[in-house]
């Protein structure tokens, strides 16, 4: 499970150090891809494979299915962290998420890790603060 907020730096080669508490779960390989809200999602390889099983079963005769599959797969990159726990974020994905300053915010999101530009994360989290208290009953009744 991925929890917490971290602020690693992007180096000149587009690499970040994964937070130490995430490294064991991602050591065997991961998939990094675009996510909604202009951030990136990093999944353990096994989680990504399991998640995509339902996408493979979806009918490709439905335009929205094809569109989602393309957008997800076209930007996906499988990576293996190096011995120091670094991963390279491909140029295309850095551009998508606005990671051009060398700064980023890494957020644990239960089954995935998200990578945000600091400005986008600040804007998103500020907007969600007001509705967070009521959100759980609508999305997860009884939680």
From TrEMBL:
GO terms for biological process: negative regulation of DNA-templated transcription initiation. GO terms for cellular component: cytoplasm; nucleoid. It is found in: Cytoplasm, Nucleoid. It comes from the Bacteria. GO terms for molecular function: DNA-binding transcription factor activity; transcription cis-regulatory region binding. The keyword rRNA-binding does not apply. The keyword Cytoplasm applies. Residues 5-47, 76-120 form the SpoVT-AbrB domain. InterPro entries: MraZ, MraZ_C, MraZ_dom, MraZ_N, MraZ_sf, SpoVT-AbrB_dom, SpoVT-AbrB_sf. Keywords: Cytoplasm, DNA-binding, Repeat, Transcription, Transcription regulation. Forms oligomers. Belongs to the MraZ family. This is Transcriptional regulator MraZ.
